[in-house]
Specification:
This is Accessory gland protein Acp29AB-like. InterPro entries: C-type_lectin-like (IPR001304), C-type_lectin-like/link_sf (IPR016186), C-type_lectin/snaclec_domain (IPR050111), CTDL_fold (IPR016187). It holds the Pfam family Lectin_C. Keywords: Signal. By secondary structure, this protein is an alpha+beta fold. The protein folds into two domains: about 110 residues; about 120 residues, Mannose-Binding Protein A, subunit A (Mannose-Binding Protein A, Chain A, Roll). Helix content is about 50%, strand content about 20%. It has four helices and eight strands, in the order H-H-E-E-H-E-H-E-E-E-E-E. Helix 1 runs antiparallel to helix 2. The longest helix has about 80 residues. It is rod-shaped.
Length: about 230
């Protein structure tokens, strides 16, 4: 826009000067008043063009300033959004980290020191007593099951590690007339009863091993005893 007005100004000046030159050359002397009268339109034209040029420059400056202000506001808005998103991501990362720590803490709490005894891995709970049902749930939380005794060899291997009077096994007859393993759902393969056992009938439906020989006794399932967890075979 400025270039257009500058071009117009130059053309006007050239045209006016050319006219003035012809007037001066062709006019009789003296021509002061005549020349002055002829140059007045040129002066007015120049003044008008200068005024319009100034207006254009002002408008362009205002428009440029407005555009810069708009861009600045948009940048500030984007900056605020970016900062909010960054803070949100940081909070999410912290929450995930905290949750991960809690999960790991919970896993460590549930993870028990299983030890190899014979060919299997066992955790012997000799600090907390539970009902038979509680013992089943506890072993499941540890990723295992109540001990399944398959033969005398397995029982003989674990007896030296036992320090309490009584421990639950996975054998019961809660839902059927015969004794079954809750781990397999099948009939118990190995039963070594103490003398006079089983003697409880329908009131004693869960099986534990009892010192000193750790032979089997039937007991009410809601009796609280210690228990042994056995890791699943891989």
């Amino acid at each position: 826009m400025i270039l257009i007005f500058e071009g117009i100004l130059i053309l006007a000046l050239w045209h006016s000067i050319d006219n003035a030159h012809r007037i001066v050359v062709g006019a009789p002397a003296p021509c002061d008043a005549y020349c002055f009268n002829e140059l007045i339109p040129l002066h007015n034209t120049i003044a008008t063009l200068n005024h319009r040029l100034s207006e254009c420059e002002t408008m362009q400056s205002v428009n440029a300033s407005a555009r810069l202000d708009k861009i600045d506001k948009e940048l500030k808005t984007h900056k605020v959004r970016l900062l909010a998103n960054t803070q949100g991501i940081s909070r999410n990362r912290k929450n995930l980290s905290d949750q991960g720590k809690l999960i790991e803490k919970y896993k460590r709490k549930l993870r028990k020191p299983f030890v190899q005894i014979g060919s299997g891995y066992y955790y012997i709970e000799d600090e907390t007593t539970m009902t038979w049902f509680g013992a089943v749930r506890a072993c499941l939380r540890y990723g295992s099951h109540l001990i399944t005794l398959n033969n005398q060899e397995e029982l003989d291997a674990i007896i030296p590690r036992l320090t309490k009077n009584m421990y639950w096994t996975d054998v019961n007859n809660l839902s059927v007339d015969e004794l079954v393993s809750i781990t397999t759902g099948l009939k118990a393969e190995f039963l070594k009863w103490a003398k006079g056992e089983p003697n409880g009938g329908s009131k004693e439906e869960c099986v534990s091993i009892v010192s000193p020989k750790y032979e089997m006794h039937d007991y009410p399932c809601r009796t609280k005893n210690f228990f042994i967890c056995e890791a699943y075979e891989e």
